[in-house]
Amino acid sequence: MRFTKHAVLSRYIAAITWFSLTLLIGCSDDDHKKPSRSSSSASVSSSSSSSAANSSSASSIAASPYAGEWYAPAYGYVLSVSTQADGFGVKTYSVTEDYCLLQNVTPNLPQEKFEQSYSYSKLAKETLRKVNGQYAPGVEYEKIAQLPSTCTEDLQTLKTDSGYAFNAERDFEIFWHTFNELYINFELRGVDWDEAYEEAVNSLGDIHTEEELFEFLSELIAPLGDGHAILIHAPLSQNLDESITKALEDEDTPNFSTNTQLRLYEKLLNEYVASLGSDDELTEEQAAEAENYIASNVDNIRETIFGYADENVGIKVRAAGEIAWFTTSDNIGYLFIGSMSDYTEGKSTVISDVAVDVAIAEETINEALKDFEGTEGLIIDVRFNGGGQDQVSLSFVRHFMSQPQVVYSKFAGRGDLATPVKEVVLDPPVDNLYLKPTAVLVSGDTGSAAELFTIAMSSLPQVTIIGEPTAGAFSDVLVKRLTSDIIFGISNETYLDTKGNNYEGVGIAADISVAFGTPQERKGGYDNGLDTAIDWIKAYH
């Protein structure tokens, strides 16, 4: 058996891909249980009272302004909200001009959970906004009179429906049109999507299975070099959240994505392949050796980093190993943030509890900054950070601000579908601020929510960015599905720094350019990024 370089990298790519996959498909009701009935006659009075309360609640739900159809054009989503006995049924449709698929179904979402997930407004028009934390903008839906005709008259048959038959041409058309209408910027990626269609459509007759379609679509989006243009092949149900969770628990789930920048793992794999002196595909033995080469060198880099810790102070590790810190012998703080999510042991790396992650992030940064009170400056290392939750990133940033300010802005869609640009204003907490010189270390692995952290931090006067250009993958992943068992992701949002710069597909250039994880550093047992940051902080004073 022989392996391509992509096959060797797949599990490492998956680990970062999952961090960036932000589901925009609605809410699940994992914790909801039906109320139990009492058979005791002694509970008649209580039951009567409960019935009255339930009747009042049901009346309130029936009259709720949430019920109806809601459309988010820049996201290609339609929500259909119906009233239930003690909550709401939510159906999420994925729509284009010509196609409609029922993407996700939540049959009975309690009113309390619904209102925690969506906020209703009736100013110039009726809107329903997906709650996305205290600061980060959420998807905004406008109320529409009825479902689009494509959803009522020509709803696509899914694999779980009776009468389904695999049709590669139909799934290709849905895929291409979804990208064509919602993808943020083909020009930025140097891709002629119309030309890609003409080249691809002639080969559809050769596709007879989902596996072949998956490979075909992978080749179609590869030229985008977009880490958030994702493909996953896994069994799908009406509960897409649950389907994705199960898929991510299986490390053998087929997935695909590419990147703007070379990641550390790719650099190391290239080193190993170059040492073979051959461009042939890797044998099974060589693939295993390549994985060991990558793992051992990553361990080497991490050991070198933590070797900078002052032996008299020690290293603290929190958030399920994703956050660690120490003080150097130069009295400079070092804070490692490995991701912006997944801070609880045993939790899925994608569908994590955002509120829990934010709470852990807040508790951890408070503890770390107390330890750093007497330091001369701070180094924050996000070179291994593939992303996670925007809310977590913003929770960290607030502790480095002296006053409220705009830290970035954001909009979705393009052309007629574009949403208004929304400025995001953060305010600092009342205590535990760190306003001393701070260096943020970045690399080609720094992506998504970690890039948001970087542009927000770069707006602050005491901060400098050191390292390599970041991944250039800012947009949340807009999750879509085909009629077959294929999920795909799209970049449909634009993030701008405080000067209006867009780094999508380009990455954030460091203020001080320093390569990461070079052979010379690994052989010499030093970290040039850390050394540069220490020198910068010393010179700052």
Automatic annotation (TrEMBL):
<feature type="compositionally biased region" description="Low complexity">
    <location>
        <begin position="37"/>
        <end position="56"/>
    </location>
</feature>
<dbReference type="Pfam" id="PF03572">
    <property type="entry name" value="Peptidase_S41"/>
</dbReference>
<dbReference type="GO" id="GO:0006508">
    <property type="term" value="P:proteolysis"/>
</dbReference>
<dbReference type="GO" id="GO:0008236">
    <property type="term" value="F:serine-type peptidase activity"/>
</dbReference>
<dbReference type="Pfam" id="PF14684">
    <property type="entry name" value="Tricorn_C1"/>
</dbReference>
<dbReference type="InterPro" id="IPR028204">
    <property type="entry name" value="Tricorn_C1"/>
</dbReference>
<dbReference type="InterPro" id="IPR029045">
    <property type="entry name" value="ClpP/crotonase-like_dom_sf"/>
</dbReference>
<feature type="region of interest" description="Disordered">
    <location>
        <begin position="35"/>
        <end position="56"/>
    </location>
</feature>
<dbReference type="InterPro" id="IPR005151">
    <property type="entry name" value="Tail-specific_protease"/>
</dbReference>
<feature type="domain" description="Tail specific protease">
    <location>
        <begin position="301"/>
        <end position="515"/>
    </location>
</feature>
<protein>
    <recommendedName>
        <fullName>Tail specific protease domain-containing protein</fullName>
    </recommendedName>
</protein>
